[in-house]
């Protein structure tokens, strides 16, 4: 439902309008990627993100118990222990705690 390149966040307008309860969650997720992009640079971000993304949504987005509930900060926003999307999901859950499902689990993610 969205993607980030550098500081630019692009959101799918149809999904954005159809699922208003996920707007803040999606925005928090994508803004986390913007910070990750800044930390890793374009080459670093893409060389790490693309292989992670190709693993599929379940492997890439599910938040492991070791990350669940942990605060996301600049020291771990690009931790190699987790995928970039797992970190972005965790950060989005911290920003929008009411969203217990997340847009990716409900099938709105189409890649």
Secondary-structure blueprint:
Layout: E1 2-5, E2 8-11, H1 13-18, H2 23-54, H3 57-61, H4 84-95
Antiparallel strand pairs: 1-2
Description:
This protein is mainly α and 111 residues long. The protein is built from four helices and two strands. The protein has a two-stranded antiparallel sheet with strand order 1-2. β1 and β2 form a beta hairpin. α2 (23-54) packs antiparallel against α4 (84-95). The longest helix is centred in the middle third of the chain and has 32 residues, at 23-54. The protein starts with a strand and ends in a 16-residue tail after the last helix.
Largest sheet data: 2 strands, antiparallel
Tell me, briefly, the overall form: globular
How many alpha or pi helices?
4
Using the CA coordinates, give the radius of gyration: 13 Å
- Share of helical residues: 40-55%
Summarize the structure.
The protein has 111 residues and is mainly alpha-helical.
For the structure shown, list the relevant keywords:
mainly alpha; 111 residues; globular; two-stranded antiparallel ribbon; disordered C terminus; 50% helix
């Amino acid at each position: 439902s969205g993607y980030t390149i550098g500081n630019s966040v692009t959101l799918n307008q149809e999904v954005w309008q159809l699922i208003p309860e996920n707007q803040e969650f999606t925005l928090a997720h994508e803004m986390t990627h913007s910070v990750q992009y800044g930390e890793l640079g374009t080459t670093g971000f893409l060389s790490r993100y693309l292989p992670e993304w190709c693993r599929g949504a379940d492997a890439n987005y599910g938040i492991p118990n070791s990350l669940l509930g942990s605060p996301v900060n600049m020291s771990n926003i690009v931790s190699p222990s987790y995928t970039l999307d797992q970190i972005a999901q965790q950060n989005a859950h911290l920003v929008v705690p009411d969203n217990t499902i997340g847009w990716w689990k409900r099938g709105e993610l189409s890649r």
